[in-house]
Write a structure and sequence with these properties.
Largest sheet of chain B: 6 strands, mixed
Number of helices of chain A: 0
Strand content of chain B: over 45%
Largest sheet of chain A: 7 strands, mixed
Order of helices and strands of chain A: EEEEEEEEEEE
Strand order of the largest sheet of chain B: 2-10-9-4-5-6
Structural class of chain B: mainly beta
Strand content of chain A: over 45%
Distance between the termini of chain B: 36 Å
Order of helices and strands of chain B: EEEEEEEEEE
Shape of chain B: globular
Distance between the termini of chain A: 40 Å
Helix content of chain A: under 10%
Number of strands of chain B: 10
Helix content of chain B: under 10%
Shape of chain A: globular
Largest interface: A-B, 22 and 23 residues
Oligomer: heterodimer
Chain lengths: ~120, ~110
């Protein structure tokens, strides 16, 4: 069965970086885009970007263009999202999700940014 | 960027009610419209893709329709497990923007 398993919760100080992993299983990893979406407390879903695991090509939302890097390691079927220059308003649950119509989601990773 | 709006932002309904949620795109998105349900503390769940296509395992009381840039999610007879927040998302062009969400709670 398809599974996306994300890394655990993180607490970071403002200005630091965080790297969240998403390990895929149960399907051909290179066959679907991997998307990253976040939900801040009291807010709605926010699309951050996607990576093509086959080519490594990425598309980022303008809001994150300068601070986000999405990568993948096809040898271990894992996608990564790194967000730099963290601010308090980056506190959110970050999700990976498979495909442009995202039919499978990771369990979410809480990233807390606090001094 | 394509802007997505949803109405209402919240609604109160009773079990058995018919509920409709509307999503409007700021420009044409063809039928590249997805609907998600999210419950507190859980990941979003894809209900409908491509405006009309019900995902496997999703109850048939959920349906999607479209007219131009207006899209509707209907729940034919609201069940207790349907109380949640619903989001539309366009997957026509980057960035794949979400609507602000519609919270459905118990009257």
């Amino acid at each position: 069965q398809v599974q996306l398993v994300q890394s655990g919760a993180e607490v970071k100080k403002p200005g630091a970086s965080v790297k969240v992993s998403c390990k895929a299983s149960g399907y051909t990893f290179t066959g679907y885009y991997m998307h990253w979406v976040r939900r801040a407390p009291g807010q709605g879903l926010e699309w951050m970007g996607r990576i093509n695991p086959n080519s490594g090509g990425t598309n980022y939302a303008q809001n994150f263009q300068d601070r986000v890097t999405m990568t993948r390691d096809t040898s271990i079927n894992t996608a990564y999202m790194e967000l730099s220059s963290l601010r308090s308003d980056d506190t959110a649950v970050y999700y990976c999700a498979r495909g442009d119509a995202s039919d499978y989601w990771g369990q979410g990773t809480l990233v807390t940014v606090s001094s | 960027d394509i802007q997505m709006t949803q109405s209402p932002s919240s609604l109160s309904a009773s079990v058995g009610d018919r509920v409709t949620i509307t999503c409007r795109a700021s420009q044409t998105i063809s039928s590249y419209l997805n609907w998600y349900q999210q419950k507190p503390g859980k990941a979003p769940k894809l209900l409908i893709s491509a405006a009309f296509s019900l995902q496997s395992g999703v109850p048939s009381r959920f349906s999607g329709s479209a007219s131009g840039t207006d899209f509707t999610l209907a729940i034919a007879s609201l069940q207790p497990e349907d109380f949640a927040t619903y989001y539309c998302q366009q997957s026509y062009s980057i960035p794949f923007t979400f609507g602000p969400g519609t919270k459905v709670d118990i009257k």
